[in-house]
């Protein structure tokens, strides 16, 4: 467990900014306490100061997880967001996509979102913009990347992929053993 | 055979393009009659003939034909090689032939068939197909399948295959009547068909008409009408099918049909729109089917379309089923959602607000965020906001739903009460028994009744049983005497009465206002305080009829606070505002009491806070009910919260003391001291508070009594709404109160009812405690929530105060009652723990009270002994402090403050201890923010880049472009003429100079220059150091000079020769002329243009190299030059032309040889090289430095 280096922080923020933009500031500078990012086992944890202090009492090899895991750094030093970060992405997300109830399951099984399953989309979404996926009941289901811009979404045929799947809450079951 | 002539078609190729048909005819006529000639001229695009060929029909015999081909093939004609071959028959000819053949064949066959049959039948004895005598069905001999049909005609048995079916039906003509007619008709028809039709005859199929059309056979005039009809119907079909109208029409029909069923058409329509894709295919299929429809009758088409519609409908139904299934699955989803689901695609703005805020604590954050982003976002407060109960506005406005809670609780609690009233008497008796023992014990302790604080409802209730009789007596004896006297009497004379009299009075301060009600007539348990209030208000001591309205409304009168509220409500009819103020005053009093109990210091603050708090709800509430109800959430809670703090400590010392007095063995000295101290302090407080009451107090030994009047006074304040000073009011209130009680007692209520009352009161008290407990829990939760929200910046300050206050109260309570560590009071978590603990203890207390109503005091004592008051370090500290400052309240307050300050300091120390970590975190945060900023800027830059790109991508009309000097963009259009011209000028000049100076060979020039150079290099280092520019300049100036110098060096060797000298003398004039300006060059220092490009290091390098060369040259030539000069002067008059044995001719070749040894030269060079390199580097460095400095 250690603080992130500048480079790592930059990578993390660049990735996060794709989803929540400048709202990262609200994660870093929280009025309700001190929160920080910590690296542990190549994973980045977003943790409050209190829990951090508690976590320091546990040896590194025994420490499985603490705080909220945002994602991990791959071997190629890219940052990959995990579904556990959804709790923090969803409330701050700038670009959202709503899926129809019929498509929810498909998405939760890890499939991309086709245009036929697209219920609603934030305007001005650009291509390859990170989006948070909601059900029509406004429950966040996961996140992904917009394969088409909003304008293109109107035009494409119903079987075209609109959002690339990145993570969904189904992973809590599917990747239960790897999620921390 | 040979001679028979056939019409043959020949191909003739390789014709000349000028050939004509006649020529060909003539040519071929020798072999046969040429009937037809077809010539084909092939030409290219420009009209040049490529090839010409033709076909001829020749009527010739086989032999002639062969001869013709053999002769004419590959023969030359008009310069071309003929090619003659047999060709295929002409298409038209073949066609005609075929047709002819077919027609002939058919006719022949027909004729043949009939004649044959007739003949064969004749053989069998059938004439003209008729056998009259034969029975129908008899077979004709010799003729298989021929039978005699009805009417005696002989007909064949037919095996017919039905159209479109594989099954072959045997048609026996003997079994049918009109078959002959049919058959005859068929034959007639066949016969009548024209030959032309028969040529292309095929078996009739569905698409006969098409084929007919293909054949060029257009239907009979009857058909067009039919077709017209058809087309109309077709048109209809198309119209209804192909367009959307069709769809809607279908839909409408469908919808109409389905109207009987449930479900709105709209939904179906939506579902249908969703499935538009499926329907878009329909028109195609229809179009396909239209071909078929052509052949069908219009009616058929109608049915067909109907069928199609039916198909549609089935499709619809399927889809609807699916959608319904979906609906069932997602029943939770609202109808709107369903519609949304059906909507194709919706695009929402970035400020779209989610219906559910899914994240825990982020509602607030979100609010802040949104505020930051300047988005007006109203979060739905309905369910999620717990703290909303805290804010006054919401209490006044919104929490109607919350109001229900307490009320229902009350009602629930009330029911058991009512039900219990009947079974009570027994208990009462039991209680009275137990009370008697209590009374005895109290009698013992009557002397030092300081602690008669037994404001505990239960205890007081017990006593009332006993006291009632006494009171009755008293009432009888002195019913009209003054109540004060009464009280005094009761206090002084009757030890029991002492316990009795306070009991009616006490209930107010103690959390149970039930005691008064006990003494009051039986009819109302709950409304007694109210009654009292009303009675006092009306100045009628025994007014029972005023209350009824409120009784129903107020379910929890047992609470003192409630009673207070009620009184307030009643009064609020008259003047609310004043009441509120008074109420506040009362509250303050209560707080004072609590302070006296627990020697609190920050009372004033709290009171103020309370005032500010309470004023809002009380003022804002218009209804009495609302006035009453909101408090349970805030005000009452607060009060209730405070009341336990008041009452419980008071209980404890009491218990402790009672313990001491009843069971002296068990009593601990410390506890006693504490209680005594506390009591003393209380007394002091009371004395401070109401001086006027002191007299009464003095008479009344009971501390409790002193408290009671205070409260009475406060209540009176509330009730009478008078602005009289407190002291007087206290007195009056006491008087009135006592009078009231006396009167109520004197009313002579039956004892049974009294017992009932008592029981009810007890239960009420118990319930009240329970309620209190629950409310405490609520409070706890609320506290936790407030703690959560405590750090919110947007929260009102008063709420924070509220919380602190409560916590402080808790702390106080703790100090006095529970003796938990004071250091922990500030940390909020611990506070919660304390609260919880407190709550639990309270619960225990009241549980014990409730459960063991009949328990003796000893039990209580035992209970409370387990929790000694001042225990541990904190307790000791507290004691010390208290003892040090005695009863002076102000000092106590100060001490309190000091203590808190100590805590603060401790906290600060703690903060200091944490500060490094905090700093770390702060640093980290700062760093993160910096990075974030960079990242976001990075993004911004990206976007900027993108924008720029887009900008550049924008189409620009070049023709419309005009140079605008004011625009920055247009700088790119400016060509830097000046620089280039300068440069070019310079270069030109240089080039010119060089060109000019190349021929300068005169020694003088050389000499002068040489001297200059020497000077230059003597001061070379200086110049380098002094000014680079200048030096550079000078070097630049020097440069042109050097080349002549070198040339001179070369020519100096030559100059020994006369001719050379002569030649150079020829130039002398010119050089002398040029010399002058050159000198001027050297003298005047040209101003250097301050452009960096002119300080090009390369440029300087070259110059420096040149310098090196110069140096070298100087070294090498230095001596020789002087010599040459001498020679030059000597042989100045040399002849121009060569002469015999000319010296120049001898020396000239030497010039091309190396004069010095190579090794030597090399050595010299190596020596100087290092120096030169150093020099060069130095200059280079300086130049670089210059450039940098300028930049």
UniProtKB/TrEMBL annotation, chain A:
<dbReference type="InterPro" id="IPR040598">
    <property type="entry name" value="NIP7_N"/>
</dbReference>
<keyword id="KW-0694">RNA-binding</keyword>
<dbReference type="GO" id="GO:0003723">
    <property type="term" value="F:RNA binding"/>
</dbReference>
<comment type="similarity">
    <text>Belongs to the NIP7 family.</text>
</comment>
<dbReference type="GO" id="GO:0042255">
    <property type="term" value="P:ribosome assembly"/>
</dbReference>
<protein>
    <recommendedName>
        <fullName>60S ribosome subunit biogenesis protein NIP7 homolog</fullName>
    </recommendedName>
</protein>
<comment type="function">
    <text>Required for proper 34S pre-rRNA processing and 60S ribosome subunit assembly.</text>
</comment>
<dbReference type="Pfam" id="PF17833">
    <property type="entry name" value="pre-PUA_NIP7"/>
</dbReference>
<dbReference type="InterPro" id="IPR002478">
    <property type="entry name" value="PUA"/>
</dbReference>
<dbReference type="InterPro" id="IPR055359">
    <property type="entry name" value="Nip7_N_euk"/>
</dbReference>
<dbReference type="InterPro" id="IPR015947">
    <property type="entry name" value="PUA-like_sf"/>
</dbReference>
<keyword id="KW-0690">Ribosome biogenesis</keyword>
<dbReference type="InterPro" id="IPR005155">
    <property type="entry name" value="UPF0113_PUA"/>
</dbReference>
<dbReference type="InterPro" id="IPR036974">
    <property type="entry name" value="PUA_sf"/>
</dbReference>
<dbReference type="InterPro" id="IPR016686">
    <property type="entry name" value="Ribosomal_synth_fac_NIP7"/>
</dbReference>
<keyword id="KW-0539">Nucleus</keyword>
<comment type="subunit">
    <text>Interacts with pre-ribosome complex.</text>
</comment>
<feature type="domain" description="PUA">
    <location>
        <begin position="95"/>
        <end position="170"/>
    </location>
</feature>
<dbReference type="Pfam" id="PF03657">
    <property type="entry name" value="UPF0113"/>
</dbReference>
<dbReference type="GO" id="GO:0005730">
    <property type="term" value="C:nucleolus"/>
</dbReference>
From TrEMBL, chain B:
<dbReference type="GO" id="GO:1902570">
    <property type="term" value="P:protein localization to nucleolus"/>
</dbReference>
<feature type="region of interest" description="Disordered">
    <location>
        <begin position="1026"/>
        <end position="1054"/>
    </location>
</feature>
<feature type="domain" description="RRM">
    <location>
        <begin position="8"/>
        <end position="89"/>
    </location>
</feature>
<feature type="compositionally biased region" description="Basic and acidic residues">
    <location>
        <begin position="969"/>
        <end position="982"/>
    </location>
</feature>
<feature type="region of interest" description="Disordered">
    <location>
        <begin position="1068"/>
        <end position="1121"/>
    </location>
</feature>
<feature type="region of interest" description="Disordered">
    <location>
        <begin position="593"/>
        <end position="636"/>
    </location>
</feature>
<dbReference type="InterPro" id="IPR034138">
    <property type="entry name" value="NOP8_RRM"/>
</dbReference>
<keyword id="KW-0539">Nucleus</keyword>
<dbReference type="Pfam" id="PF00076">
    <property type="entry name" value="RRM_1"/>
</dbReference>
<feature type="compositionally biased region" description="Polar residues">
    <location>
        <begin position="548"/>
        <end position="561"/>
    </location>
</feature>
<dbReference type="InterPro" id="IPR012677">
    <property type="entry name" value="Nucleotide-bd_a/b_plait_sf"/>
</dbReference>
<dbReference type="GO" id="GO:0005730">
    <property type="term" value="C:nucleolus"/>
</dbReference>
<feature type="compositionally biased region" description="Acidic residues">
    <location>
        <begin position="1103"/>
        <end position="1113"/>
    </location>
</feature>
<dbReference type="GO" id="GO:0003723">
    <property type="term" value="F:RNA binding"/>
</dbReference>
<dbReference type="InterPro" id="IPR035979">
    <property type="entry name" value="RBD_domain_sf"/>
</dbReference>
<feature type="region of interest" description="Disordered">
    <location>
        <begin position="969"/>
        <end position="997"/>
    </location>
</feature>
<feature type="region of interest" description="Disordered">
    <location>
        <begin position="405"/>
        <end position="451"/>
    </location>
</feature>
<dbReference type="InterPro" id="IPR000504">
    <property type="entry name" value="RRM_dom"/>
</dbReference>
<keyword id="KW-0597">Phosphoprotein</keyword>
<comment type="subunit">
    <text>Interacts with the GTP form of RRAGA, RRAGC and RRAGD. Interacts with NIP7. Interacts with DDX18; the interaction is RNA-dependent. Interacts with DDX47; the interaction is RNA-dependent.</text>
</comment>
<feature type="region of interest" description="Disordered">
    <location>
        <begin position="897"/>
        <end position="922"/>
    </location>
</feature>
<protein>
    <recommendedName>
        <fullName>Nucleolar protein 8</fullName>
    </recommendedName>
</protein>
